[in-house]
User: Fold these one by one.
Assistant:
Number 1:
Amino acid sequence: MQDRTIRLTAAQALVRHLVAQRIEVDGANQSLFAGVFAIFGHGNVSCLGEALYEQRERLPVWRGQNEQSMALAGIAYTKAKLRRRIMVATSSIGPGATNMVTAAGVAHSNRLPILLLSGDTYHHRLPNPVLQQVEHFADPNITVNDAFKAVARYWDRITHPAQLIQSLPTAIDTMLDPADCGPTFLGLPQDVQGTAYDYPVRFFAPRHHRIRRIAPDPAEVTDAVALLRTAQRPLIIAGGGVQYSLATAELAEFASKHRIPVVETIAGRANMLHDHPLNCGPIGVTGSNSANELAARADVILAIGTRLQDFTTGSWTAFDGEARIIAVNVGRFDASKHMSLPVVGDAKVSVQLIGEALEDWTGPGDWRDTAAAAVDRWNTYVDANTKPSNAAMSYAQVVGAVNRHCGPRDRVVTAAGGVPAEVAANWRTKGIGTVDVEFGFSCMGYEIAGGWGARIAQEETEPDAATFVLVGDGSYLIQNSDIYSAVLSAKKIIVIVCDNGGFAVIDKLQNNTGNMSFNNLIADCNLGVEPFAIDFEAHARAMGAQAETVESIADLRAALGRAKTATGPYVISLKVDPHEGWTTEGHTWWEVGMPEVSDRAEVVAAAESWDEGRARQRRGV
């Protein structure tokens, strides 16, 4: 007997299928897709827009101000939801679509799901070339949407309505696969969006999803346990995958039972509370002396849920050359890096199995004493580093003030530039999973958009908690329009704008590599007028936010109190020193391309210094 059918356009069928998807979150059955971030144009307004309007009560639509930022908001939402609920972002064709490519890169690097839907040129090609179409003379099948192939886990162009029956469930399954999850992309030609087809009714029946938990091969567990038992200086590196696996409690229990020090990656910040006795701080280029001292001496490293990015590994100089790495990861690709002993499986399941097989084995007591002493020294440094002074405000002082003001469930969001390094090094976690430092793709402009998306997620379960956004002036100028989005949608975010007069952290890198300050700080750019400061307070007020400017850390603390009791988005502007006050301790070496020849003696000297660092790199693959 044939399936009953219903005649719908491709766009209508797509939206109805999304609405039918369900998932269990914290014991409650919820819609898998929480909403759509949309900017309409001729490529998606008449057909997809019509379909979304009909389902607007079941699938809320949020209008963004920029296609990149609205997709970033969707990414921050799903990160806050630990990949258990997903947002959709849709654009028209041409520049609207290419704006989302950067956001797709963020999602791809950070292993975060989002469904991207872009309009496309007509499948029948009769009106070609259409508005916003770029033409490839030798291949008419290529459109700008092909750019998403480099940054999508799943990519398809729907050239017939029936293709949705296969392609859309595959895209959804990809986003929910713990090993392969990331952005998925569907290109929707304008004529195909409106083409009708007799879809089987069961295509729109509710489907209940679960996040798959992969158990590791018993032989891999056995090998990992055997290696761990040989360790005299064991160390756990906890990455973002610990949170996505909902394994933070298991991590803490495992570390406590077997008495192994734990360090956190940037993505894994807030895996453990600051005061946990085995939390030894953040590792890597933006890390702590405590974590990096332990990493340099560790003989067996258990890396859980991390892709071992260069900021974690110090471009692979952070570890002893003879150290052995056990990589627990649900993705084979990540578990096999740098000749690691792989344990391919879900973090929660794998940690439990390894812990059971270890039985009562514990790491040596003198190693834990070493770790505790290192943590004490680092805490003393952070106390001094974040303490207000009579000098100009520093990033570290601002981070410390915000950190002290935060409650245990308040969330902090930041991204590229100098701010994330200072947050990673100086932040003291009060609540599990409350830190979002986007440093996988290091995307300037993520901060405010991400704060908006995180706030939408936070209000669903923790409406009384606050969302703090820390952003530099450079990132603010790149993308700030979601202050207006937050105002329009009544989503309260507290934005702290740290104005250091340009791209100060890159100016610092420029100077550290022997170069002269050039084209980073506003004062060092090619100018036609005298440089002047932006009035960020006035700018934020123009978008409808409450705003103020502060001159000291004491003023900042008072402003944070006013912001927390305010009823809408609140922006606090302040100046930080572009040259002084950086966190100088805790950094590992980092690979930077250096000129082999230069007329500047300072550059030559810096290159020689970097060559010394390269000599310490592990030669893994």
Note: The chain has 23 helices and 23 strands.
Number 2:
Amino acid sequence: MTASTASKETLGFQAEVKQLLHLMIHSLYSNKEIFLRELISNASDACDKLRFEALNNAALYGDDSELKIRVSFDKEARTITVSDNGIGLSREEAIAHLGTIAKSGTKEFFSALTGDQAKDAHLIGQFGVGFYSSFIVADKVTVVSRRAGLPANQAVCWESSGEGDFSVEMVEKAGRGTDVILHLREGEDEFLNAWRLKSIIRKYSDHITLPILMAGEKWDEEKKEQVPSGEDETVNQASALWARSKSDITDEQYKAFYKHVAHDFEDPLTWVHAKVEGKQEYTQLLYIPGRAPFDLWDRNARHGVKLYVKRVFIMDDAEKLMPLYLRFVRGVVDSADLPLNVSREILQESKDIEAIRNGCTRKVLSMLESLAESEDPAEQEKYARFWREFGKVLKEGVGEDFANKDKIAGLLRFASTHAGTPDETVSLKDYIGRMKEGQEKIYYVTADSFKAALNSPHLEIFRKKGIEVLLLSDRVDEWVVGNLTEFDGKPLQSVAKGCLDLGKLEDEAEKKEAEKAADEYKELLGKIKAALGDRVKDVRVTHRLTDSPSCLVSDEFDLSGNLARILKAAGQKAPDVKPILEINPNHPAVQRLKYEETRFDDWACLLFEQALLAEGGQLDDPASFVRRINDLMLALSAK
């Protein structure tokens, strides 16, 4: 490497990088060796990118078509160097990639930090900030890189001591690719050891498909020590793990490969490895992570399945290989049939890709089914953990994947009145197994929180009769019940919509009593409706309440109150649908209203407003509600 005539330029780091470097240098010392895993992973990515670009421009290889990674160290200079002959960096790319962090992940990265050094170190790769882990062991990092296709004098030298700035200058470099040179801090000499470096490589990077080379060593009997052999040694297995037979792969190797493709430090929850033969031939190695990624709720974020064709890397965010509701899946798909120059445009239209996508979707759902239906407590706990991390996302599939809707429905879990706690969930199959004799429907209630659902006045008659009700409090649940109308032949029915029909669970005496109350209170219902005006669609006697004086329900085909609030909170205009007010004729407040004359309108408004609050709604005029309550309390106390 020689400097060109271009002058050296010093630039400042992005503010987030400064914060990150301070964290690396001063906090994350619990697992220093991760720096080598991250640098080798970056080198592997650089080679994959060259391979992809060279599909349309073979000249990028020049006279060096054998891609590889090299790790070396110099005891005297106290440096470690990780080199690759991949795509390399131009001057602009070096500044952009090494001086800034993608804005999308920065905030989430820092908010995810726990203060626990071991756990925080695990986040480094996941958030795409692995290069900066070099500063855990180095007080200066030098990067010399030449982008494929650029002349030798267009290489760039990037250098920083991890403080507030970095320098860049144009230099000469004989071959393409990148050399990352770590100048070790005092006390880090443990890494200036071939055995130590090789053990780290085999621990974290054995699955890398490129050869990772180190200088070979041999025993010198005279010196009684290891000396250079003059030949290179391939440290890792350097073969595509997914292409090997399952019987030849250990669980530890599967886990190590997952950590590489997912940039995760934790073990996966489970995985599936299969070779599909037939009209399309492809291999799939798909993982369910043990923890939700930080960008899980960003539906536009990169997806986690890498596409290979005949073991040649094509792209690492092949969103067409997995539906959006399975965006948490990580792994690789290697096709034997797709053309090597496959592009994103081809992915959009390819029938082969559609078949691969369908096959991968079915395989993931079947993998989850086997966990969910297992009688092994360990497997059951795995599914419970999966549901805690990814259940809300899986629910999206009910409306997005018609072909697999029934299979997805069987995987869903909900809180219910059977358990009464948000952590203990039930499946729809469990619910049906506990249905009372004569029960024909699966009952549910939606609300904006578990407590609001559990304490909903709509549940009163169901508690009295011992009928289980599902408690739906996730925002996505309104989407679920809007698309899932039945399960196993049993219709799903909201307890807060339409006229309540308990069918065979309601005895004749109850029906007659309800009809009598409706006739007896007919005049009062008319007066309440007149007092409330256009705030309600109708007023009627309830069949749902046993303790509360009133509740609000929606017409059978109208938007529920909870969904209307969700749409409003999301900034969307919801249809102006009026609720129905139901009153409980057995409640003292309603019976008193029959004889109220002076403040009838206030009492009628109070019945409506407390029903609205009980279901989680918001009052249009809270001040008037408070004033009305105070006036009625004073009037009652005066008597």
Note: The first strand starts at residue 2 and ends at 3.
Number 3:
Amino acid sequence: MAGRIPQHFIDDLLARVNIVDVIDGRVKLKRAGKNYSALCPFHKEKSPSFSVSPDKQFYYCFGCGAGGNALGFLMEYERLSFPEAVEELARLAGMEVPREHDRPADLAREQQIKTQFSVLEQANQFYQQMLRHSPNRQSAVDYLKRRGLNGQIAARFQIGFAPPGWDNLISYLGNQAAAPDDIVTQLERSGLVIHNEERHRYYDRFRDRIMFPIRDMRGRVIGFGGRVLGDEKPKYLNSPETDTFHKGKELYGLYEARQHSNHLDRLLIVEGYMDVVSLAQHGITWAVATLGTATTAQHLERIFKIVPEVIFCFDGDNAGRQAARRALDTTLPVIRDGQQARFLFLPEGEDPDTLVRKEGEAAFSQRVSEALPLSEFFFRALSEGSDLSSMDGRARFSTQALPLIQSMQPSLLQQMMMDRICEITGLSLEQLSSVIDLHRVTEPAPEAASRAPSRTPTSLPPEYAPPAADYADYGQLAPSDEPRPPTAQHTGNRSNRSRGSHLNLVNSAISILLHRPALAAQLPAASELEGISEPNIELLVALIDYLQTTPGASLGTLLVDWQLDNTHAAWLMMLNEIAHLDPILAGVDAGGLLSDTYSRLLERKVESRLDQLLKKQRQTPLTDNEKKQLQELLMRSPPSSH
């Protein structure tokens, strides 16, 4: 953990730098009397209202109100944190940032990080020298020429060469160091050498590869990527995770893109180092690459702090479409109003490097301008394989799309995408909100599948323990807790329900089926439940019948089908209510519990019919069929029941 920056140093730093020099290197200033003026970099304007005062060492925009000192400008313009802005300003002034440390461990760690950066930069210089002077350099030079790179672009990205051999880097830096053993330790911590414990020796991680240094926002080397010259595997090798390098956060080419342009407004995310370098050589200097991993939420949050627009670039093959779908899923929860994401698909068999060399910057830029907006790609990707002209197809589409849209930040884009769902399904926003609510609460918990199944009541968690020792009564409500008719009062105030509320048998079965609709296929025909006198039994019969008789049935199709049928409105309200009750799926075998629940309902049907016949027998003679039925029921009923 870095120590605090002393206030006296910050004051001294601001006294040493000239705010005009800091801003003029990023925004073109013009003299205006005693001050300087420019178009404001923080909002769009046609006439300059941005003023910089060298006397006061202060900037101010009369249009948007932005203002501050040199540190504030760097934080706003470069999207830097306060410590990062101090570091950058100190670099411009040629000063070292001191730290105040509360613990010796903090001081030791900071010194270790500084040493690591130094070792990485020395390695970077070594690889660049090897590209110019190594006896084995020709194969690397020929490779870069075949890929169309010139010396100027190679110098801009500081491309180097790791010659063949086991310990070239170790030997070079060891000869430069006063303590060779210490430099080997630092090289290992920096991810540049590997320790073979069996042979008790160290060797270079990168050998016979083109080397691409990965630099952070301040231009410091934090790691490397190496590409083989032939077809060996792995084609690309990245530095491992270290104290300075975290591949899930960093982007190759971001430093170079920001150095080339004072004010970026978009970034193109590609796959490989060579894609970034080749695009830059052809004039597309705003491309970056992830480092051997898919784009993460951390990547996007960082990018959107720098630019308002990101364009994902993918191959047009199956793998490219799958990667695009993963990028879509990652982007949806991150993107906000004022930000934009688009998706560019290249012709199959092409990548940015080959395509820009083949057709040039203008044609490639035209492709970028035609990239699909996020919303368009979203609806195109999710509608693949669904027949939106059919009710079932729209239901399947909605089941996939609604949770993704709901994961988004509240925004105009989210609202517009919901409106589009309304157009596709023919449902209102109010109905869709009900569908989303029901879908969310009926999704099985992620950990449920990993829990050990059990059908014995003693293994249930305490909050789901049966109210009595008799397992036949498990899940029954007390008489005063019997469900009320599906009225508006019944569907409200769910939060007042106690955590330990239990469902009756019918509601238990409904709750299980809402969580696991596929289990309906294991049950006997729904018609066998007809004739049972239990609250909500008609809803359970209808639910089972729908799931058993509708091809491709799911909760999504049921919601859409029943929404379109006004006669099912009360049932949908009841489903929503039951779904909000505490589920009884935790720690039990859902299929087994559903089977047991179904069996007990059938037993109640038998008992109910038996009671009817016994009561009738006391009042009037039974028919022959009734007598036969009574005899069969008495044979099935436990002796102590009557």
Note: The CA atoms of residues 490 and 626 lie 40 Å apart.
